[in-house]
Amino acid sequence: MSCLNTSTRSHPAAFLLVGIPGLQEAQFWIAFPFCIMYVISVLGNVIVLFIIKTEPSLHEPMYLFLAMLAVTDLVLSTSTLPKMLSIFWLGSREIGFHACLTQMFFIHTFSSVESGVLMAMALDRYVAICCPLRHSSILSVPAIVTMGSLVLARGVLLVSPFSLLVHRLPFCPRCLISHTYCDHMAVVKLVCGDATISVIYGLFVAFMVGGFDLFIITVSYAMILQAIMRLPCTDTRLKAFSTCASHLCVILSFYIPALFTFLTYRFGHNVPHHVHILVANLYLLMPPMLNPLVYGVKTKQIRERVLRIFQQKGI
Q: How large a percentage of the chain has pLDDT more than 90?
């Protein structure tokens, strides 16, 4: 099909999102677990935000970072799921060119923000375990607000050129995106001209964000583990290990699918396309669903507050 805008030779009026290539017949049923994941994500993160806001004792560094993570997860999942479900259930595959660029901006910006918040949470755990007496002075509320602002600014500044570079590129008449959302590389593959700068910049951002954050997280947890092993009490060590394990589960649920998606675009030519797209969807759906569940179960204050709410409602 030809979908180039009549007002310009280079910009398409709209794209068509294929969904999950090779699984079009099963997409109607695949949408149900995706929808359940989205509902759990929205409810879980809203509850976490409500509890942190209404409980003064939770206005501490770890919970403020958790609130940032909840907001990020809500934006990230809402940027993709409603359109994805409309593709699967209603066959509404068309997305306007500028709407596609906007979706791409939000997905990649808040993926960067999520990575930055996970890094900040790892630093918080390091300071809490390795420098407990200085924790409140190092990670004061102004310091946390500054860190959150820098993480958001980094995401916006680094990702904004994605849309600007793509906007200047000439596109081919065939505008089918083999994906469920407007991923940067999926859109760049439709370009007819030289997209080298856009591809190289995408690699630069991936290494600047993911590489830097993963390095800080790895170093932080290596030092945390060293500090835990020096603790004299076995019960204290086990409690610290348990806390770190929950954090690491959240981190791995975000970075493993992200790295798989990133590497598959560039090197995984033998990976079935539907496997690639399914993992790319889980990358945006799994962490927002798991984060409130993991932190809600592992965090005593949040768990007790949720139980009190249900008891008051008679549930």
A: 26
